[in-house]
Amino acid sequence: MKAYVYVTLKTSVLDPQGQTIQNALRKMGTSSVQGVRQGKFFTLALAPGLTEEAARAEVERIAREVLTNTVIEEFTYRIEA
Amino acid sequence: MKAYVYVTLKTSVLDPQGQTIQNALRKMGTSSVQGVRQGKFFTLALAPGLTEEAARAEVERIAREVLTNTVIEEFTYRIEA
To answer: How many structural domains does chain A have?
Structure first.
């Protein structure tokens, strides 16, 4: 069982890395990209035998307490059997 | 139209960041996580009026040439209307 956690800056927070990438793309002549935001993601390999419900609770706790700075970031996750 | 590009280290490449997170989780008493890998992801806002085919070609080119170090990383992407 695997869990995928996606962490992004809140939309109200400036993203200088994304901005830099967008500027680079523009300099390279790419006009079809109007905005870039960068985030992180984590793949967690979960112990076998965990119920889906237990996995959700555990992943949500880890995402909130360890992987995300909830002041400026938010997360989503999905679990795959 | 939005594109999501996910960049991960190739599985043959060591991931010290992921390892550090896993160690931290273990010290916190979490036994249900057996492995952690960290990656990056990018959200690209694409210009309206781009065909799906053109968007795919463009995003694939940007992912390969700009967002991914193909020596040690690999990418996947998806496009959302």
So the answer is: 1
